[in-house]
From TrEMBL:
Bilayer-spanning residue ranges: none
Annotated region described as Disordered, given as residue ranges: 207-227
Protein name: AD domain-containing protein
Family matches, as SMART domains: AD (SM00995)
Biased composition (Basic and acidic residues): 207-217
PANTHER family: LSM12 HOMOLOG (PTHR13542)
Species this protein is from: Acrodontium crateriforme
Domain AD intervals: 116-212
Length: 227
């Protein structure tokens, strides 16, 4: 009975924020949610949306497991793609398709994929890796810079040249500074870093030319057929 009450509590927490399903009976809500296709959105600042089957809602760890693989007739023979989401991080929860387990399909339980022991250490590593990546992406966004400036920065990043923002200045190889408006003549470096400076200038010149050509193509109207 105590376990049943815990599940009811979890269901209420999951279903409450901006849920589109009935909120009358949390016990019934949880029973219908397990196995159903759902859409879950997590809270800001790193909001993400997951769509898949609700595999489990754990009252002990306060997490839900969502299998985000695409529906298929042979799901039983395929490995699931499970995402574990803390209930405290859920902003909205919506059922997009009812659970087959509670419907007319009597074989639903038999065909459900099996899940081995959860590697909590690996889950923690994945979470930390994702957070680190999101922080890096945030640091790569210039504050108060133009769209062209960000495009130039991203171009350097794509070819693996060490680059970072310092206010609105670009720092490359911790040696070359490019100040707005980010022209070749805006590149500066110490006297003993002239070789690096020349390499950065050459890359910058090429990237600006590519951007200009791209803008020119986008601005050229496509001729209409038939005059």
């Amino acid at each position: 009975m105590a376990d049943k009450d815990k599940r009811n509590s979890v269901a209420a927490k999951v279903a409450t924020p901006k849920a589109s399903l009935p909120l009358g009976d949390s016990q019934e809500t949880l029973a219908k949610a397990i196995g159903a296709r759902i859409k879950v959105t997590t809270v800001a600042p790193h909001s993400q949306t997951y769509e898949g089957s609700l595999y489990s809602a754990c009252p002990v760890l306060s997490i839900i497991a969502v299998d985000t693989r695409a529906p298929s007739a042979n799901n039983a023979s395929r490995t699931g793609d499970y995402n574990f989401i803390p209930i405290s991080k859920i902003q909205s929860f919506q059922i997009t398709a009812p659970s087959a387990i509670n419907g007319s399909d009597s074989n639903a339980v038999k065909t459900a994929p099996s899940v081995g022991p959860v590697d909590l250490k690996r889950l923690k590593q994945r979470e930390e890796e994702r957070i680190r990546k999101l922080k890096e992406e945030e640091q790569d966004k210039g504050q108060g810079v133009t769209k062209e400036a960000q495009a130039i920065f991203d171009s350097f990043k794509r070819i693996n040249m060490p680059i970072r923002w310092h206010n609105q200045e670009m720092i490359l190889h911790e040696a070359v500074i490019i100040t707005p408006p980010y022209r070749v003549e805006d590149c500066k470096a110490a006297k003993d870093k002239q070789e690096v400076l020349n390499r950065v200038k050459k890359v910058l010149e090429g990237e600006k030319r590519k951007l200009k050509e791209r803008e020119s193509r986008n601005a050229t109207p496509v001729p209409r057929k038939g005059g």
